[in-house]
Amino acid sequence: MSPDQPPSCIFCKIASGELESDIVYSDDQCVAFRDLNPQAPVHVLLVPRKHIENLNGLTPDDRGLVGALVSAAPMVAAQLGLAVDGYRVVANVGRFGGQSVDHLHLHILGGRPMRWPPG
Ligand code: 5GP
Ligand code: ZN
Q1: Residue of minimum CA distance from atom 21 in ligand 1
Q2: What pairs with residue 25 in β-bridges?
Q3: I want to staple 44 with a disulfide (CB 3.0 to 4.6 A). Which of 20, 26, 53, 108 is the partner?
């Protein structure tokens, strides 16, 4: 466990394999797994292996990691068959953003048309 990793963080535990999940993508910096409570026919969470609370916790040192995370999103989406019809990528930040797990994650949602504005 890295010194920056809170012992109770479920997404750190999923990324390290300590907690079971349905992993659909994995590389040296990121892991993607199916959401436990899907809000669309396809709902995957893409997380960095490094514990960062949310977008607000990024520093200039994380630029490479951000590049890896964001560029993995279309790869995961294509792998799950979402590329042609499209999909939504969401990062909830903090209380008003609706964030419930304090480990940076991108929601990748697809398989149905998305509405706008979000709730
Ligand atoms: P947030 O609300 O923080 O943007 O998103 C957290 C997401 O994590 C929610 O969609 C929730 O369903 C999902 N989630 C919470 N706990 C677990 C878990 O233990 N395993 C998986 N696969 N998803 C989880
Ligand atoms: Zn974490």
Answers
A1: 36
A2: 32
A3: 108
